[in-house]
Write a structure and sequence with these properties.
It is globular, with a radius of gyration of 20 Å. The longest helix has 20 residues, at about 295-315. About 35% of the residues lie in helices and about 15% in strands. About 45% of the residues are buried. It has two domains: about 5-145 and about 305-315, Rossmann fold, CATH 3.40.50; about 150-300, Aspartate/ornithine carbamoyltransferase (Rossmann fold). The protein is of the alpha/beta class. It has helices spanning about 15-25, 50-60, 95-105, 120-125, 125-135, 150-160, 185-195, 210-215, 225-230, 260-265, 285-290, 295-315, and strands at about 5, 40-45, 65-70, 80, 90-95, 105-110, 140, 170-175, 200-205, 220, 235, 270-275. A five-stranded parallel β-sheet has the order 1-7-6-2-3, with helices on both faces. It has twelve helices and twelve strands. Bound molecules: phosphoric acid mono(formamide)ester. Phosphoric acid mono(formamide)ester binds near residues 48, 51, 143, 275 and 277. Phosphoric acid mono(formamide)ester (CP) binds near residues 48, 49, 143 and 276.
Length: about 325
């Protein structure tokens, strides 16, 4: 019974999740009656293109109604701290706003990124957990502070569709970016890969180590050429520093780490993956992302499938 979906543990075992994904992909309109007179509320604290459209499409495939709230565009500015005197610019407390939102819908999706100011606050997933606690409705993450499970599920579906060997070699590589980005996509990808029997390698410059609880048994390889050698999938992502006082900082944006044709030539004809949006010629060269090896578009298309599986499981609980 899926009452929340914020991490891989909420959908285990992966084998049944992948079976559900195949069912949904083969027949996306089979469960139209399941969503009749049910409403999905999507709450965005941050911008989105793919998550917004793919989740909405998934809900429409299930026959649901959809309401979208962009917190920073037209809603009251929300206070999230407890016990503060609200004499500033924030007009409404999240502890009233969340239960109110819960009365208007049957399922809630929430996007609330890390603010990269305080690691403990970010890794406590304060906003997502408040929705789970106070909305009274099933809640799923549309990317939290520490994970992006709908993305990782779509990534797994894509790898399963494209893999040429039963246990592919998958590389997660840090890539340069001018701005500080959360670790959520990388954490989440690692968490999901660690639930498979794939060979999983992570490479990044020194200083960009991820939280050990996500890295788990992955091989961490600091030598870029060794890391790329013989892999079947290259999954690129930038993240800011996680460790110590450098939390949330860009230590450097060394273009040596950009995915280019020279590095891809070290692989076993690897496919290139990225969650998008991607900064060309920072994360990946034009040449690689425009090559037949790039599967970023089918990867994004699978976001509808991952969202629809989650919605279907949550609708079953209503
Ligand atoms: N990959 C992803 O989540 O894209 P958006 O940020 O555009 O939703």
């Amino acid at each position: 019974m899926m009452k929340k979906f914020t991490a891989v543990e909420d959908i285990l075992p992966l084998q049944s999740a992948l079976t559900w994904a195949k069912e949904v992909k083969a027949n996306p309109f089979a469960d139209q009656s399941m969503g009749k007179n049910k409403t999905l509320l999507m709450v965005f604290f941050n911008a989105s293109l793919r998550t917004r459209l793919s989740t909405q499409r998934a809900a429409l495939n299930m026959g649901m109604n959809v309401i979208v709230l962009d917190i920073n565009q037209g809603a009251w500015k929300l206070e999230t701290e407890h016990g503060v005197v609200m004499d500033g610019d924030k007009s409404e407390h999240i502890l009233e706003a969340i239960p109110v939102m819960g009365t208007y819908c049957d399922i809630i999706g929430v996007r609330a990124f890390a603010n990269l100011q305080n690691r403990d606050d970010d890794y406590a997933e304060i906003i997502l957990n408040q929705f789970i606690r106070y909305s009274g409705k099933p809640v799923f993450s549309m990317e939290g502070a520490t994970r992006h499970p709908l993305q990782s599920f779509a990534d797994l579906i894509t790898i399963e569709e494209y893999k040429r060997t039963p246990k592919p070699k998958v590389l997660l590589t840090w890539t340069p970016h001018p701005k500080a980005l959360p670790q959520a996509v990388a954490n989440s990808f690692a968490e999901w890969m660690n639930q498979t029997d794939y060979e999983f390698i992570i490479t990044h410059p020194e200083g960009y180590e991820l939280d050990a609880k996500f890295v788990k048994n992955a091989r961490v390889e600091y030598d870029i050429e060794k890391a790329y050698k013989g892999v079947d999938f290259v999954y690129a992502k930038n993240w800011s520093a996680y460790t110590g006082e450098n939390y949330g900082r860009v230590l450097h944006a060394n273009k040596q780490w950009t995915v280019d044709a020279r590095k891809m030539a070290l692989t076993e004809n690897a496919f290139f993956m990225h969650c998008l949006p991607v900064r060309r010629n920072m994360i990946v060269t034009d040449e690689v992302i425009e090559s037949p090896a790039s599967i970023v578009i089918p990867e994004a298309a699978n976001r509808v499938v991952s969202a629809q599986v989650v919605l279907r499981e949550m609708l079953k609980t209503l």
